[in-house]
Amino acid sequence: MRIxxxxxxxxxxxxxxxxxxxxxxxxxxxxxNTSSGQSLWDGAQFNVNAGGxxxxxMLVHCFADMVGLDAAAARPIAVTAELIHAASLVHDDVIDExxxxxxxxxxxxxxxxKTAILCGDIMFALAFQNLAHLKHRVMVTAADVxxxxxxxxxxxxxxxxxxxxxxxxRSIAEGKTGALFAWCGLxxxxxxxxGKAEEHFTAVGRHLGVAFQLADDLKDVLPNxxxxxxxxxxxxxxxxxxxxxxxxxxxxxxxxxxFWATDRSSNADLERLGERVVTLGFEPAIEALKDEVQLGLxxxxxxxDKASAQDLIRWAETNLGTYLNSVAA
Length: 329
Fold this sequence. Notes:
With 329 residues, this protein is mainly alpha-helical.
């Protein structure tokens, strides 16, 4: 997924990257015995520097600029958002037994599962520690986000081998991705004391987060995306495209459930069913993605005079264009 980048955003993200690497240095913790756990820090640094687009710091920059919060105050919020995201990915890869993330081997495969779990834990700890000097409610709402993300991952895990209706799918998507996107705006709004922006930015973030999750479901069925193609189908994960495919052809449900009842080792069956998912579910997902982006951008009309609002709109439109081009291809 591409990211719209101008000089201001790039400069902000460069400093955020520097802050993250400083936090993830074992020398940052007084008294930590690096000889007993260097792989913990190596794994954390490997994961957080493994090609992420820094979407969440970009969102923080745009939202902060809209409410006049200076970069120094926004940076810890951006760092925390990225660390929460990175830590959640390490844990997700363990749960999913994934082999690769962003064209690189996953932490639990490069080291081991224990190291991966502890890498995620240390990143979560540092993320919250990083907010200590901001308003108390910034940290409280970050904790709320982590709770919602964790509950949604549990819901997703328990929904495996189940073809969800659209509302449960959306609830999981909003919790997994929309909650943190929303906090990228909520944190700066709280720190700046702008109550109205809290409402606006929460709406923007939650809709764009659902759109982002839709894009991830689309990415799962496209080739050469840096992850195993049709992984959602093989792992029996909830997927908007699978739901829409079954909705379009109820007989397809029987085929999918029969595949899930096997050991799922047949690549031929996976490819056949996956291509059927593309045929039936891809275009409805594109339409849903457009709708979510439109709903997400609507509150930004209150900040139409802000260049950062236009930056955020360009980012959303750029990413939407990626998937529209995939349809055309």
